């Protein structure tokens, strides 16, 4: 087993106060099957839950199975500070303090009101239960703001004069625009949180889709435009694409032409070609493999008129448009060229492993390449501005992959009650809550 994914989850039993650690191993076999193996649920017996103790505990349990974490083995995590510190592996996260002051103020006012209502007995008077913000929950700001938007017209009737001042500071128009904008990010998290199927091929197109979503529109309020500029820059600097993302996208039949990100196609093609030549050259002598010496001659041209499948799925916005089919003469890279001109329509919900399993005889080398990088498709790298990969650990009860059951930690009433410890009149807010969005 050369490559695998370790998923780690910590929790505390509320009646006994004992803490436990759950470990799961995910692995893709050579016949394109994805398996989950539960390594165990272990009593956490360290004195404290410091990041060093957590990492030592996990390393000890993994070593008992002959496993270890290194630069090519990753763990999936949420934003919980202790878990990030335990698995950061000498990487530093640098965040500039940015603006978005007006939306920051709106967020702060909503948070104070929500915290107050959840602590009081006024919650039952609302048609919908308010959601507390949690910085360890992906897209936690959206959930809090969206529910608050739904009860905005009713919440004034249950607030005292002090908190009415906070409500006055919440512009309903800006709130509605903000929630509409953030909904696309929630859809992206859902799409990248698939549990049962590898989906690293979604990372590049969805990243580009979010960048496109951050483009400014003339009819938007200035506050939203300011947030779009910040998040667009944040995506570019913090969400760094790896070679595997490019290759996985090219090796998906509905994304291989890179219609969503045309400027990235050449890099992806070169990466796959390089890997293909490296594999072929191990068993054959290949002449004229430089890009200047590889020639193809078209003999037949046809047009693909297949109509795209209608869907509300987010990834369907990234799929390629129908292309001309070019049949080339035989070359050392004929397998790659034949794949690029392959006219095939698969269901967007189909497992990409099933496609390559069905076409392993037609594209044996490409299938082998896909199998290799598919072992990393159930893992996600979080990279910093200095391009250093960071192991990323996921702390949620339903154990997900980089794209696994929604990577948001579901917060129940006990979580909410534990989080209501702050002084609601405290005006100190994070420098910019959108930095970890």
TrEMBL record:
One cellular component (GO) term of this entry: nucleus
Keyword annotations: Metal-binding, Nucleus, Zinc, Zinc-finger
Keyword DNA-binding: no
GO terms of molecular function: zinc ion binding
Localization (cell): Nucleus
InterPro entries: RNaseH-like_sf, ZnF_BED_domain_contain
Domain of life, per lineage: Eukaryota
Major localization listed first in the record, in broad terms: nucleus
Protein's UniProt name: HAT C-terminal dimerisation domain-containing protein
Lineage of producing organism: Eukaryota, Metazoa, Spiralia, Gnathifera, Rotifera
């Amino acid at each position: 087993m050369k490559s695998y994914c370790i998923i780690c989850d910590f929790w505390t039993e509320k009646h006994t106060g004992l803490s436990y650690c759950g470990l799961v191993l995910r692995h893709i076999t050579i016949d394109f099957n994805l398996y989950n193996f539960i390594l165990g649920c272990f009593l956490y017996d360290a004195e404290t839950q410091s990041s060093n103790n957590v990492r030592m505990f996990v390393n000890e349990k993994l070593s008992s199975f002959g496993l270890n974490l290194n630069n090519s083995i990753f763990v999936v995590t949420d934003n919980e500070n202790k878990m990030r510190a335990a698995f950061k592996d000498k990487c530093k996260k640098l965040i500039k303090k940015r603006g978005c002051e007006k939306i920051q103020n709106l967020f702060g006012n909503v948070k104070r009101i929500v915290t107050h209502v959840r602590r009081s007995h006024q919650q039952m008077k609302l048609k919908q239960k308010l959601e507390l913000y949690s910085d360890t929950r992906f897209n936690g700001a959206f959930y809090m703001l969206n529910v608050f938007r739904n009860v905005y017209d009713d919440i004034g009737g249950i607030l005292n004069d002090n908190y009415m001042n906070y409500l006055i500071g919440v512009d309903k128009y800006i709130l509605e625009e903000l929630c509409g904008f953030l909904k696309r990010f929630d859809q992206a998290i859902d799409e990248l949180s698939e549990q049962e199927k590898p989906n690293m091929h979604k990372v590049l197109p969805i990243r580009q889709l979010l960048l496109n979503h951050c483009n400014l529109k003339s009819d938007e309020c200035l506050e939203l435009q300011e947030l779009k500029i910040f998040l667009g820059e944040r995506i570019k600097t913090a969400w760094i694409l790896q070679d595997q993302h490019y290759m996985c996208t090219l090796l998906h039949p509905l994304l291989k032409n890179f219609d969503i990100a045309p400027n990235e196609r050449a890099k992806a093609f070169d990466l796959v070609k390089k890997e293909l030549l490296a594999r072929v050259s191990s068993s054959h002598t290949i002449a004229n493999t430089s890009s200047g010496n590889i020639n193809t001659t078209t003999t037949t041209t046809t047009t693909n008129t297949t109509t795209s499948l209608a869907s509300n799925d987010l990834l369907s916005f990234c799929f390629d448009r129908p292309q001309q089919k070019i049949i080339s003469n035989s070359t050392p890279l004929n397998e790659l060229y034949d794949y690029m001109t392959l006219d095939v329509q698969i269901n967007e919900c189909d497992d990409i492993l099933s496609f390559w399993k069905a076409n392993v005889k037609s594209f044996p080398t490409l299938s082998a390449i896909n199998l290799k990088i598919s072992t990393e498709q159930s893992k996600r790298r979080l990279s910093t501005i200095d391009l250093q990969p960071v192991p990323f650990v996921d702390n949620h009860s339903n154990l997900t992959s980089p794209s696994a059951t929604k990577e948001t930690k579901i917060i129940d009433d006990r979580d909410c009650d534990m989080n209501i410890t702050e002084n609601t009149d405290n005006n100190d807010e994070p420098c910019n809550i959108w930095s970890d969005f």
